[in-house]
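Late entry, evening session. Most of the bench is empty. Finally got around to the prediction I had been postponing all week. Sequence below, unchanged from the version circulated by S.P.
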Amino acid sequence: MAESQQQVPTASSSAPPIPESQTPGLRASRLIQVFDQALARTLRANSYSNFASCFPTPARHVPASLESVWRQLNAKLEESAKAEFEEIIDEREAVKHLNELDRLVTEARARKEEEEKNGDGQTENAPHVLGAEELYKAHLTPYLQEAQSTLNNTLEATNAQNSELAQTVQAQRLEIEKLLSHLESVVGDIEGAATAASQFSKEHHLRQDAIQMDHEVNRGSNV
């Protein structure tokens, strides 16, 4: 963007006519140039040697067919990328907006030079003498401030919700600890009851054995 700004002619030079909305101007042309360069580098990276290394068997036995497939793939990739780029440019009206930026910057520089020539004494902070970066920041700052405020409010609400959740989790932990403690007490009671039942069963068997032995002794005495 800085390189593009340096190339914008001043009012004192023979400035080219401002392009129409659909004719790419300085910045729109630069955007298209950057895309073309990036696409060319991508296609160069997909060289035949790199492509063939992924398919060693066809490259060894049918190299001509594999190279044909590679050429068709690159052509399809280039065609699809350009079509999608043009679709985005048209959908976002990028050429129109970039041309408008070119016009604003050119007019601002022309007015600044005219005021300096006439000695009007305008302050450097006047909107019409601002450069592209200052205009960009001036238009973007209110939106950024609003977004920052929204993010801060969202963050505060999230922190409050997290605090409530933390308190809820802490209360649930305490309740679980109480339940576990009560469960341990119940388990202890059950174990005690089981021990007592086992002891009672043993004493009952001993009593039954003693009664049976007494019966047997009495029958022997009667005989």
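Two things to note before I forget:
The chain has a mean pLDDT of 78.
The radius of gyration is 44 Å.
Will write this up properly tomorrow.
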